[in-house]
Amino acid sequence: MSGLTLEVRGLSTHFDTRAGTVRAVDGVSFSVRRGRVLGLVGESGSGKSVTGFSVIGLVDPPGRIAAGQILFKGTDLTKLREEELRRLRGNRIAMIFQDPMMTLNPVLRIDTQMMETVFAHTKVSRQEAWERSRDALGMVGIPSPEERLSSYPHQFSGGMRQRVAIAIALLHRPDLIVADEPTTALDVTIQAQILAEVQTLAREYGTALIWITHDLSVVAGLADEVAVMYAGRIVESGVVGEVLDRPLHPYTHGLIGSVPSRNKRGSKLRQIPGMTPSLVDLPKGCAFRTRCSHADAACAEDPPIIEPGPGRSLRCFHPQLESVA
Amino acid sequence: MTTWLLRRLVQAVFVMLAMTVIVFVGVNVIGDPVEILISPDADQAERLRVIAAFGLDKPLWEQYLHFLGGVVQGDLGKSFVFNEPALRLIGGRFPATMELAFTAVALSVIVGIPLGLYAGLKPDGLLGRAIMAGSILGFSLPTFWVGLMLIMVFAVQLGWLPSTGRGTTAEFLGIQWSFLTRDGLAHMVMPATNLALGNIALVLRLTRAGVRENLGLEYVKFARAKGLSPSRVLFVHVMKNIMIPVVTVIGLEFGSVVAFAVVTESVFAWPGMGKLIIDSINVLDRPVIVAYLMMIVVLFVTINLLVDLMYTVLDPRVRLDGRE
Predict the structure, then answer these.
(1) Which residues share a beta bridge with B81?
(2) Which residues, listed in sequence order, are joined to residue A11 by a DSSP beta bridge?
(3) Is the N end or the C end of chain B the one with fewer CB atoms within 10 Å?
(4) What is the CATH number of the domain that holds B209?
């Protein structure tokens, strides 16, 4: 238990809409250890972002955490009151968002937005809060942080803004950072720089990271473990090298097969047929069966979670043993 | 900044010049003041003497140039009726209208913004919906009717508030003000409320729409993810973004409250500029009409200038001279 920063057990987050209950997250379990990176992979609408927001306690109505436990260093976050959650947010658990153009408040200066985060969790002088903000900016590789502190967000480029957001997340040296597709909106070169920096920082401070993405190449380079989500469930998880080299779930197969660089030049790009199913009143059984070439009558029942190897889990009746072509 | 200010001032001069032409031609079309000013039994010699005294015997363009010449020296002409400089006449009524307008705008901010915030935070609650429904009454009921109803209820039936005039005034900076005495304040309650109602509704709806829009934005979620208290998220992060449209509207509304206080001032017999202008139009007192309208133009230009300056304070992305 000691090294476990976060353990999520059977988490279900539902949205009650007029059309019915959307089971955005449906019985998800995973854990992240100190200093390790978990890649949470899936298509749009697979529930990966909602999982992230559930962990940090920012699921807004009509959404609600319907079941499960979120154990953060042994404390169940689903049992905490809003004020107790607020004290953890930005302090012990931080979050980085997808679009750096939208996350910073356009009309407040960077120093205001950083120092208020310091003041929200500690009683320090303005001078000290300012120094901490400056150091955090320097740490994420922003040149001349003293001057940049008095700038406004629109005076930064996208990559620089994301660095500012990361610096804000790092202000209190959190135990856990939930990063929701933080590099998706950035140039590839900036993406690579930020990935490298985040990885170093996480290692250095023993921060656990949940990296939500749809980009398998990012996961391959950054994560230690990976969990693949489909229609609100984790269909396969394990150590990154194993899952990506020997995927067992047909969906993971499909995902890996869809990466363009893996295909031979001139050959047709592979794709997974069909679309992600609507999550409103999803029928019983494997949600992927309508798009799966291996599906049969058995798939109409919920597949049990099996453990094909140490640290690996799988939800499928038909594990694929041959390697991805 | 300085070039911007200069450019704005030059623009303002041209706006005012255009305004004088329109007004001058306009008042000339409405009617002949001589018919009203001279008693019907005056003889022809008397008529001609008066016409010459007012300078109405000259062609319009000459009258206009003569007027412009006066403007340059700070003289907007003398009232035909009171035989006093038009500017001094308006100046005497100016404080009464201004204090009424200021109070009305202050009321619309003090009442409108909190109600709007509440309605924006709780859009589905009973009170939130009641506020929105009430705001529709706020700007659809005609001012004069609301004014009469206020008098009916609070002055006639209940006898709580006085219905006419400014009440006792006290001097401050050489000007008489009503808001400095209890009696004056009591006299101001109804007209100010009457004038404010429409603006309260406007500010309220604008604030609510801003809250609804901004709460859904990513920066709010990020601010919450930083662990900020809900009050800081609302009053610092959201509020500063909402204030940009609200300030614009308040600025423009202030102008129209001053310019169109006419109705309220007539209903409550408030001795402000609105009443003066109505009386002047009735007797075709041209210099007063022209001076009044010019003053309103100056007021609007000044307010717009102040609103633009406020923008730079509220929104760092706005730079007045278009440079970073």
Answers:
(1) none
(2) A28
(3) C
(4) 1.10.3720.10
